[in-house]
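The instructor's notes for this session suggest beginning with a concrete chain rather than abstract definitions. Hand out the sequence below and ask the class to guess, before any prediction is shown, which regions might be ordered.
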Amino acid sequence: MSDHTKTAFSPVLKRQHFIVREMGLSDYQATWQAMKDFTNSRTAETCDEIWLLQHPPVFTQGIAGKPEHLLCNTGIDLIKTDRGGQITYHGPGQIVAYLLLDIRRLKLGVRELVRNMENAVIDVLKDYHIKAVARIDAPGVYVNHAKIAALGLKIRKNYCYHGIALNVDMNLTPFSYINPCGYQGLQVTQTKDLGITDELEILSNKLANQLQEKLLKGISIYHHDH
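After discussion, reveal the predicted structure:
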């Protein structure tokens, strides 16, 4: 891990009822291990968390992913992970929001959880008068048929981890080296190319707030001391 990557759990921001951690540029493998460790050690009293971060360039392949969706050798690491979905790309300039949640306590089924994640991105973009949609056949968020956000989850004993990635201001070229999320020729876009000038930090905060609003809808009482 380089000096420019980190998995430090700070600073901690307390918004509404989740703990939100802003973790900067974080190594994928170390972050994935940290998510598994957090999930394995959590109890019924553990607060739910959202981790906001970016990754150095990396391809990740879902548990049922097909390696042939990586079209060429690019020199970018490919990591086989335990989330759902096919191959996607992460890199600087992309907001990754990892959701470490007790979905039973939140009264969320998996489909509703996915829908709420997608709707959070849709509403962030709606603030900028950009119409985005979700697709039943291909989870994620799309603007004019181009994918702007990808998601993948792991559910273990009513706990979830992994999350959603929103393209903001990044090098999109590596997406051309894969069939994004398993779809040949799928176009990819980002907020910068849609005319949004707000920086990643502002969009991260908006996404975290929208995720909390959507995910807490089913909870009338949720008391935890942070």
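Then share the key points. Residues 1-16, 221-226 have pLDDT under 50 and may be disordered. The chain has three helices and eleven strands.
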